[in-house]
Amino acid sequence: DAGPRLHDMHAKDLADLSKRDSQVAVGEGKIPIASIFRALQTIKFPGYVNLEYEINAKDPLPGMQISFAHMRGVLAGLAESSVAMTPSKSSTKARG
Q1: What is the pLDDT of residue 84?
Q2: Domains of the chain: total
Q3: Structural domain boundaries enclosing 81
Q4: Which residues contact 20 (CB under 8 A, 6 or more apart)?
Q5: What pLDDT sits at residue 7?
Q6: In Å, what is the CA distance from 87 to each residue of 24, 81, 83, 91?
Q7: b/e 55-74 (16+ beta carbons within 10 angstroms → b)
Q8: Which of 20, 33, 68, 88 is buried most, with the most CB atoms less than 10 Å from its CB?
Q9: Is residue 69 included in any domain, yes or no?
C-alpha cells in the first residue's frame, strides 16, 4: 500500500529469498518481477524502476543485459495484455 508514497523503485532478483547475498540476474530468481510490474501498472506508477545489479563487478554487462531484457519482456507482455483487454473502436460501435 505504498501507492502515492512510491516514487522510485530498485529491481533485483535473488536465488534464495532468505539470503541477501544470493543475487542473480533479474528473471533467474524467485522475486515475482511480473507481478510487481503488474501491481505498479495497476496503481499507475509514474516513477522509474532502476536495476540494482551488484554481482560480477569485473564484468557486470552480461548480467545487466539479461536483467534488462527480462524486464523489457515483462513490460512488453503487460502492454500486449492491456491492448488485448481494451475494446477496439470497431467492436464498441453500435451496430444498426
Answers
A1: 62
A2: 1
A3: 3-88
A4: 14
A5: 85
A6: 39, 12, 8, 6
A7: eeeeeeeebbebbbebbeeb
A8: 33
A9: yes
Residue 96 within any structural domain of the chain: no
List the one residue out of 84, 79, 65 whose CA is nearest residue 27.
65
Question: 21-76, pLDDT tens digit by residue?
Answer: 999 999 999 999 999 999 999 989 999 999 999 999 999 999 999 999 999 999 99
Buried-state track 6-38, b at ≥16 Cβ within 10 A, e below 16? eeeeebbbbeeeeeeeebbbbbebebebbeebe
Q: Are 33 and 74 in contact (CB under 8 A)?
A: yes
Phi-psi region of 3 (alpha: psi -120 to 50; beta: other; left: phi over 0): left
pLDDT at 96: 44
Q: Is residue 35 assigned to a domain?
A: yes
Q: For the segment 77-87, what is each residue's pLDDT rounded down to a tens digit?
A: 999 887 665 55
Residue 38 vs residue 3, higher pLDDT: 38
Cell 554487462 sits on residue: 61
Residue 95 counted as domain residue: no
